[in-house]
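Let us work through a complete example step by step.
Step 1: write down the sequence.
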Amino acid sequence: MHNTPGTPDPEFDDIINTETWGPYGTPVIQQVQPGLTRRGKAALTIGAAVLAGGGLLTWQHYSAETAAADIKAQELQYKRDLIALELQKELNKASATNQEILETQSAEQQKQIQACVNADKGLIGKQLGVTYASVLEGCRAQYGTNGSSTDMQQAASATDAGDHEGGISPGALIGIGTGLALLVGVAANRGKKTNAA
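Step 2: predict the structure and record it as tokens.
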């Protein structure tokens, strides 16, 4: 039979119409359930547990490293403070020693000037133009230029001037020393971490 429009063809209708298919001719249609299978759910559960456990261990390791770094920083600060204290003690000792030397030399110088004035007092009024002020000035010129005393006074004034005229002050030296100690400590700590890895 020809398949012409308007004439029904029963064989063609049987193929097209799915209601008439037999037991082997109908396709198997399974209902797809939404969601995951039991294996998928188990895999997701295990993955989430692994991620949570790994995150917890990572956080604990990080917090332990942070605590250790904080303790190390406190130790370094304590050591820097001890170094600064020892340096300040030494500076104070040196300053006290210099002051004692200056006072001793100044006392000796005053004794020498007083002895000179007492020895030349007899010339006041007996020689023309000799007054107490001129005798005192002459004795100061004679005994006031003591080499070691002048050197010590110059050293003391240089130390004082160093604080005001651009020299390196003891505080700056302490800061530089502390910074170098901290830099060495950090470098040693990083070296330990690199070798441990």
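Step 3: interpret the result. The longest helix spans residues 38-120.
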